[in-house]
Specification:
The complex is a heterodimer of chains A (247) and B (722). Chain A is an alpha+beta fold and 247 residues long. In chain A, 25% of the residues lie in helices and 19% in strands. Chain A has helices at 21-30, 69-73, 100-104, 126-129, 136-140, 157-164, 210-223, 228-238; strands spanning 7-12, 39-43, 47-49, 52-54, 57-61, 79-81, 88-90, 110-113, 118-121, 146-150, 168-169, 185-188. In chain A, the strands form five sheets. In chain A, strands 10-1-12-11 form a four-stranded mixed β-sheet. In chain A, strands 2-5 form a two-stranded antiparallel sheet. A two-stranded antiparallel sheet of chain A has the order 3-4. In chain A, helix 7 (210-223) runs antiparallel to helix 8. In chain B, the strands form seven sheets. A seven-stranded mixed β-sheet of chain B has the order 6-5-18-17-16-7-8, covered by helices on one side. Chain B has a six-stranded mixed β-barrel with strand order 23-27-24-26-25-28. Chain B has 24 helices and 28 strands. In chain B, helix 7 (180-189) packs across helix 15 (342-355). At the A-B interface, helix 1 and helix 5 of A face helix 1, strand 4, helix 3, helix 8 and helix 9 of B. Bound molecules: iron/sulfur cluster (SF4) (3 copies). Residues 52, 54-55, 57-59, 82, 86-87, 89-90, 216-218 of chain B line the site of one iron/sulfur cluster.
């Protein structure tokens, strides 16, 4: 049996030029709605005093955490960490659109697609991966800042890049229970330790899901899977009202 | 936890995706051809190669086909301009084709010009109207009363046939608004338009306002980032701290209009300290002694006072540059702060590369688009044209190549009615209302026309004022004539069906030609026939080239050949052509006009998400663009009592606009900056309308007498709270 994979990204911060080809490529590949995005390039801003300036761009998307808080709060089981690839995915048929996972992610890497009533996020372009292609953002990256591959394979491009990096940073986050998210995006050759991209405390945590995690599956079972639409609607009444999930 | 297989997941996300934007079925002939060529399999999955046209760089594209539908565009790894990558604009291409604002049918104006009221017409009717009007103007006022304008594109040959066959000398390109200064400087110095640049061995780079990370040419931008990652020293001079500045070793916020002084001082040090390549100068150049005598006065101290770059820094750059030579390059890309002295700046840059001997290493003779041995349909000679060109070439601008022209002068001649009055304007894929300086004057010129026809995919600001709009097929929907690059010849071929009744330029020009009695200039059945005639001398079939998107011809053997197509046959440090005409033959300091008290230099430039005036309505690009605001240095804003996001009124000699302010450290205190292409007039652009303001409203028309280039940065403005 093939060894378990651990897919993730290496981002060479020194190479990102904020051209946003990756952003458009992601939207085009994954047909992301016009109001939403799965991927960001954070401009840390022009720093310093004229004329001694600096400016850094930080591309990111879902970190495909080793220990993802988003899967823990998912009451319908739609959000899961894929055993084979290590990617964190959303089964949109099972997603009830409650948005708990959106609030649980310390990286704001998810969004609730209101038109479709489901949560969406970076999938590592798994549809491309399956036919032997790299994610759309990586393939087109004009600065070659984005790399993707299997960290469990020492010969992969990402492992090699980490080995040769001048500096490595990871936006790890300690959760309430003392465990860490252990993100699978590594930033190399640049400083991303800036408050603008630091993970923040989840606004929704495992503790809060307790009663809902019992009630919602019960409601779902009661209504029956064939009435998923109603189920989604009904369960939405159970969760606290609408919220803005702005990046 | 529910257990969902990935297969299931994929099925679901695929279905959901469809709700946002459907894929697009291939037209049956395209699908059939693709299947025959082996590009798509029995399930209708695969790739069709073609060429991008979101800008003029022409990256190779592979359109991904799934179940017979185009679902995504990718960079073509086989093509040197893309090397497998597409920039944001290239990635957004399907959205240009499926823009909800596409012009789907021929339109004929029914309201007042500029009211935007059109009715749908059949192609026959629209073409008849256009041909009748053009013929009427020709019969009454002569063919020269019709102006034809279009910008560098692959179907330009067809356009030129229409224009030359019709017999008009009036050819408007947009080159004078962009890089006339660079091209004419290269012609005068090297006898070639633009040498190729090679970054592979580069060690030292001077970028004079060449904002490579925002004015993107995919392969060159990628080569630049690679060079930076390798540790190449990059000196970036620009009054603005661009994203390129952020990647460079040194950003020098030079005073606008003084790039020439900086380069003259580099020459002063390099010649004064004998740091140039004596052998190369001896063998390949003329006029060195005169050059040395001229630049002796341009000391770093002298330049420091003008440029506000310290003399020590200039001296250090000159020494480092010549030490790194021939692995050094002074890029003569075209976005310096653009003043009438830009031509001399460009000359100084070309000379800097020449005397340090960078030829053959970082600068190479351009592969050119020389035709690659391609054929073309037979045609008779063009009728003789005796009328003067309205743009003053060559009678007012003797050095400007005919195919570059002086577009802003063309517009002004329309207004003056001299040397004669123009009556009609045929505009293809061009938007002079936004690209020419002084929009009010351009609108006035349009008002003088008896007839205006545009060929376009959307109702851009110029089409908004047209009498007839002919809907062109987008670059993903049509064939264009072939493109030779080096020893390869590339093909643009349709990957989706044309929207509505859109047609290719080759078809439109032929139809008009036939109605104007010019059939002999359009001797092809259809687009494919045109391409077959092009391929005939090479013995290559259209089918072959369709499969891979290109064909490879044998490489020319032999090493680098130095051939300078100048009167002396050498690199002309002193230009005999300029001298003969009584112009400055050796770069000489020309002081730019200073900004009046209380005014700012108005700078414009590029962002990586847009191409000139043409892409602002693309929804994907709109989604990821920054709000276009007026940049102003924080110190200046404070003096004026202005805050970030304040609505400000920007006023020049010729116009005034309102837009939001961006207070930043990233620009000199004496300058402000605007991104061009916004502030649309056309309400037919529902995505872009109402966003930002147009810089062309503010730009004053200043023309460099030698190159005919518009001095785009020479305009000064006042800024106050709106
Ligand atoms: S980044 Fe957020 S969405 Fe992605 S796996 Fe981690 S917690 Fe989940
Ligand atoms: S494509 Fe690459 S270089 Fe461009 S913004 Fe994205 S990560 Fe940065
Ligand atoms: S640089 Fe971008 S827009 Fe221009 S041809 Fe290449 S992909 Fe297309």
């Amino acid at each position: 049996m093939a060894q378990k994979k651990c897919y993730g990204f290496v981002i060479d911060v020194s190479r990102c030029i904020d051209c946003r080809a990756c952003l458009v490529a992601c939207s085009a590949e994954n047909k992301v709605g016009m109001k939403y995005t799965r991927i960001w390039v954070r401009d840390l801003g022009v720093k310093g005093e004229y004329p001694n300036l600096e400016r850094t761009f930080v591309p990111y998307n879902c970190m495909h955490c080793e220990n993802p808080p988003c899967t823990q709060v998912c009451v319908s089981g739609a959000t899961y960490k894929d055993k084979e690839t290590g990617l964190v995915l959303v089964d949109q048929e099972a997603c009830i659109g409650c948005g708990f996972c959106v609030d649980a992610c310390p990286y704001n890497a998810r969004y609730l697609d209101r038109e479709r009533g489901v949560v969406d996020k970076c999938t590592g372009c798994i549809q491309r991966l399956q036919v032997g292609q790299q994610p759309a953002c990586v393939t087109t990256c004009v600065g070659k800042a984005r790399l993707f591959g299997d960290f469990n394979d020492p010969a992969s491009e990402v492992s090699v890049a980490l080995k040769n990096a001048r500096a490595i940073q990871r936006l790890d986050y300690e959760l309430a229970d003392g465990t860490h998210t252990e993100p699978n995006i590594y930033f190399i050759n640049g400083d991303v330790m800036d408050p603008q991209v630091q993970p923040h405390e989840p606004t929704y945590s495992l503790a809060e899901t307790s009663w809902k995690s019992l009630l919602i599956p019960a409601v779902l079972a009661g209504i029956g899977a064939s009435f998923l639409g109603q189920a989604t609607f009904f369960t939405k009444q159970l969760v606290e009202g609408e919220k803005e999930f702005e990046e | 936890m529910t257990n969902i297989s990935r297969r299931n997941f994929l099925k679901i996300s695929g279905a959901a995706a469809g709700a946002v934007m459907l894929g697009h079925f291939l037209p049956p002939p395209v699908a059939e051809a693709a299947r025959l060529a082996g590009q798509i399999d029995a399930d209708g999955d695969g790739y069709i190669p073609t060429l991008c046209e979101m800008c003029v760089w022409r990256c190779g594209v592979r359109a991904k086909i799934a179940k017979g539908k185009v679902v995504k565009l990718e960079g073509n790894p086989d093509q040197p301009h893309s090397q497998g990558r597409l920039c944001a604009r290239g990635q957004s291409g399907l959205m240009t084709t499926y823009d909800p604002d596409r012009v789907l049918y021929p339109l004929v104006r029914v309201g007042q010009r500029g009211e935007g009221k059109f009715r749908r017409a059949s192609w026959d009717e629209a073409l008849d109207i256009v041909a009748t009007k053009m013929q009427e103007i020709k019969d009454k006022y002569g063919p020269e009363a019709m102006i034809f304008s279009s910008t560098h594109n692959l179907s330009q040959v067809g356009f030129e046939n229409l224009l030359n066959g019709f017999g008009s000398p009036n050819y408007g390109t947009q080159r004078s608004l962009c890089f006339n200064a660079m091209i004419v400087a290269n012609l005068m110095t090297y006898g070639m338009e633009e040498p190729a640049r090679d970054y592979s061995q580069l060690k030292y780079l001077i970028l004079t306002g060449r904002n490579l990370t925002e004015a993107i040419s995919t392969s060159e931008t990628a080569a630049f980032v690679d060079a930076v990652a390798r540790g190449v020293k990059v000196i970036y001079i620009d009054p603005r701290y661009t994203k390129t500045a952020a990647k460079s070793t040194e950003w020098l916020p030079i005073k606008p209009g003084t790039d020439l002084a900086f380069h003259l001082a580099l020459l002063n040090v390099i010649i004064g300290e004998k740091l140039y390549n004596e052998k190369f100068v001896e063998e390949h150049t003329v006029g060195f002694d005169e050059l040395a005598a001229e630049v002796a006065q341009y000391t770093p101290e002298w330049a420091a006072a003008l440029t506000e770059i310290p003399a020590d820094m200039i001296r250090c750059i000159a020494r480092e540059f010549s030490e790194a030579a021939p692995y050094a390059l002074a890029h003569n890309g075209w976005r310096t702060s653009n003043f009438v002295n830009s031509f001399q700046t460009q000359r100084a840059i070309t000379i800097l590369n020449a005397i340090t001997g960078n030829w053959g290493v970082t600068l190479l003779p351009a592969a050119g688009e020389g035709g690659g041995g391609l054929g073309k349909p037979p045609q008779p000679p063009y009728p003789r044209i005796s009328a003067l060109r309205l743009d003053g070439v060559p009678w007012k601008y003797p050095f400007v190549p005919l195919k570059l022209g002086v577009f802003q002068q063309l517009r002004d001649s329309i207004l003056e009615g001299k040397p004669y009055q123009a009556r009609g304007w045929f505009i293809s894929r061009q938007n002079p209302v936004q690209s020419l300086p002084d929009r009010n004057r351009t609108l006035e010129a349009l008002g003088k026309m008896d007839f205006i026809v545009t060929v376009d995919v959307i109702l851009n600001d110029t089409s908004w004022f047209a009498d007839v709009v002919l809907p062109e097929a987008s670059y993903l929907e049509r064939y264009d004539p072939l493109l030779p690059v080096g020893n390869r010849i590339f093909l643009r071929q349709p990957v989706v069906e044309p929207q509505g009744e859109a047609k290719s330029a080759l078809w439109i020009f032929k139809q008009l030609g036939e109605r104007l009695g010019l059939s002999d200039f359009f001797q092809y059945e259809d687009e494919e026939d045109y391409l077959r005639q092009q391929l005939m001398p090479l013995g290559v079939t259209l089918e072959e080239i369709k499969t891979h998107g290109f064909i490879e011809l044998p490489k020319k053997e032999g090493g680098l050949e130095y051939k300078w197509n100048t009167p002396s046959g050498k690199i002309e440090l002193k230009s005999s052509t300029l001298e003969g005409a009584g112009y400055t033959a050796i770069p000489k300091w020309e002081a730019p006009p200073a900004a009046p008290d209380g005014q700012f230099h108005l700078l414009t430039g590029k962002v990586g998400q847009h191409t000139q005036m043409s892409t602002q309505n693309n929804q994907y690009l709109h989604k990821y663009q920054d709000e276009p605001r007026l940049w102003m240095n924080a110190q200046s804003a404070e003096k004026l009592g202005l805050k970030d996001w304040d609505l400000v009124e920007v006023t020049s000699e010729v116009g005034s606009v309102k837009l939001a302010l961006q207070v930043t450290q990233a620009i000199r205190p004496d300058s402000v900056y605007m991104t061009p292409g916004f502030g649309k007039l056309s309400k037919g652009l529902t995505t872009a309308y109402g966003v930002g303001a147009s810089d062309s409203v503010l730009h004053v028309t200043y023309t460099d007498p030698v190159s005919g280039g518009q001095a785009l940065s020479q305009t000064c403005v006042t800024v106050k709270k709106a």
